[in-house]
Design brief:
Oligomer: single chain
Distance between the termini: 24 Å
Strand order of the largest sheet: 1-10-9-8-6-4-3-2
CATH architecture: Alpha-Beta Barrel
Order of helices and strands: EHHEHEHEEHEEHEHHEHEHHH
CATH class: Alpha Beta
Helix content: 40-55%
Strand content: 5-15%
């Protein structure tokens, strides 16, 4: 397991800022958060939000990240800081605004290349609707597909990964679940478009994470993985396996069977309640390492596979219990 990569949400490291920077005036800078993240034992990568985290020359920032002993796992588009995107980015009713969103995405991809990554995660938080009789659903869908087709064609060497979420901030998202996302990818028809699976979003969509992973792997590629946890009601961003350890284990077990080789990225919110982000990240890494070890052991147990094939839940739970609860 020495080749595992662990990445993190950079903004988490603004949590409890004054305990780390006693003389800090205002918010920590991007470089300060990167420097703090690098102190987390076992962390190998960071993800950067575009354009928020790129207020300087990308090459200079890339050198700084390397000097901290980290790599850039991927870029993540954040359209929400632009007020013109409040009605949507790829599905905005104004063609000029849609054009700006597409061009902004291309610039984000170019920036990622300079930082040494070919992964671009797209979460369309503002693309959706709130009212009946607000949206022309067919036109929104067509605009969505056309935008992704252009972005995918612009960067065929780049993994364009869709992160779906049921709602928030819009009441209904244009890409709310795994089935709709896979339908969109089918319509897009580009080999370099896949899915980022966010554990809390999947729970929030009333889906089983391992089942969602299996469906994605059948039709496209799991390009990104966001691990966290929650109570199914919202995007809680809690520590990995803190609420749903069995479902987390099953997801990792499924991913190992599918040959997933991407980074285990922690999309958690220690800043929401002022937790120590370094310690939180380190515990997440320890947790995932332990779950991977268990998953790999489960893969070698014929009795478990036999129980699953016959849908014998009692026997399968008894086997898993030995690893999660002790013999």
């Amino acid at each position: 397991m020495n080749d595992l990569r662990f990445a993190t949400r950079l903004n988490s490291f603004a949590s409890k800022a004054h305990s780390y920077w006693p003389d800090l005036k205002g918010k920590p800078t991007i470089r300060q958060m990167i420097e703090r993240a690098a102190t987390a034992q076992g962390l190998t990568d960071v993800d950067l939000n575009y354009p928020q985290h790129l207020n300087e020359d990308p090459k200079s920032l890339g050198v700084f990240i390397k000097d901290q002993g980290l790599n850039v796992n991927g870029m993540a588009m954040r359209y929400s800081t632009n007020p013109e995107f409040q009605l949507g980015a790829f599905t905005h009713p104004d063609a000029k605004v849609r054009r700006e969103a597409i061009e902004l995405t291309k610039r984000g991809i170019d920036c990622g290349r300079e930082l040494g990554t070919n992964l671009m995660t797209i979460w369309l938080g503002q693309d959706g609707f709130d009212y009946s009789f607000q949206a022309n659903y067919n036109k929104m869908w067509d605009d969505l597909i056309t935008a992704f087709q252009e972005v995918a064609a612009y960067a065929p060497d780049c993994d364009i990964s869709i992160e779906y979420k049921p709602n928030e901030p819009r009441s209904f998202s244009i890409l709310p679940d795994v089935a709709t996302t896979l339908l969109a990818i089918s319509d897009i028809g580009a080999k370099n478009v896949g899915v980022t699976l966010d554990f809390a979003h999947v729970l929030y969509a009333d889906e089983i994470p391992a089942y969602a992973a299996a469906q994605i792997a059948r039709r496209t590629k799991i390009m990104g993985l966001h691990l966290n946890d929650g109570y199914h009601k919202r995007d809680d961003g809690l520590m990995v396996a803190s609420v749903n350890p069995r479902a987390t284990l099953e997801l990792i077990w499924q991913l190992r069977k599918e040959g997933f080789n991407g980074a285990y990225y922690f999309d958690t919110f220690p800043d929401a309640s002022g937790l120590d982000p370094v310690h939180e990240c380190e515990v997440n890494i320890q947790t995932v390492r332990k779950l991977i070890a268990i998953a790999d052991q489960l893969n070698s147990i014929d009795e478990l596979q036999q129980a699953i094939e016959s849908q014998d839940a009692v026997s399968s739970q008894a086997i898993v219990n030995q690893f999660l609860l002790g013999k």
